[in-house]
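Reminder: ligand-aware prediction takes two inputs, not one.
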Amino acid sequence: MMKNAVEVRDLVVRRGGREVLKGIGFTIAEGSVMGLLGPSGCGKSTLMRSLVGVQQLASGSVEVFGEEAGSKALRHRIGYVTQEVSVYDDLSVTENLKFFAQVLGVDGARIEEAIAAVDLVSHKDAVVGHLSGGQRSRASLAVALLGDPDLLVLDEPTVGLDPVLRRDLWKLFHEIAERGAAVFVSSHVMDEADRCDRLLLMREGVIIADDTPERIREKTRTDDIESAFLALVEGTGDQAGEMA
Ligand SMILES: Nc1ncnc2c1ncn2[C@@H]1O[C@H](COP(=O)(O)OP(=O)(O)OP(=O)(O)O)[C@@H](O)[C@H]1O
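Here is what comes back for the chain with adenosine-5'-triphosphate:
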């Protein structure tokens, strides 16, 4: 049986005096791609920050591979890509990866593999500041892949990318999961939902569904996740109340 990479229980987070996550719980299995979908401001980034251990929790718990999120033992097991590009503009792609490989104490042999995985071989010597937004995001993703993480946390990695690239990136996420890692990907684009093994639908700091995309559509008697989301919000879906 698949083990859980992540276990979140009764998680409450406050930011700026407001309750941003309102007591949520879920698990992510090893070897799976879990999607996190919800409108802007619903708390996706805050949840991801909680998993990587950079967010103060008001109550509840977040365990990753059986350790408390943020503990030192997890540092090299998690790859995290935020919405901010985290690579240096004045270095080339390869120079960036060399720098981060040193910081992370990772074998230099991983550099070429990571560049190939994000399809930047043809731009490996280009200065990051001269790359397109999508190429820069892929350079950040390559940094996260350097340590061959067991959990990859990706905050809206496909924003602004063309459809072909988005498709290729999702293929890469599944390849990473097939090798046994857990991949947690957020998006506010509902049509990306079907690319996930399992989905969390989130609204205003609450998880309104936690299931496979097929089951979410089935239970809400809808044809797509956007309609399912609306059905859940409006309470019109069959058994909608039992979804989460
Ligand atoms: N540094 C902060 N201080 C106070 N409140 C914050 C801070 N960062 C975020 N928030 C608030 O927390 C809530 C959740 O924000 P969060 O960034 O987690 O949402 P999100 O779903 O990731 O949004 P988006 O899709 O736009 O990135 C929002 O209402 C936001 O205003």
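The longest strand covers residues 4-15. The chain has seven helices and ten strands. We will return to this case in the review session.
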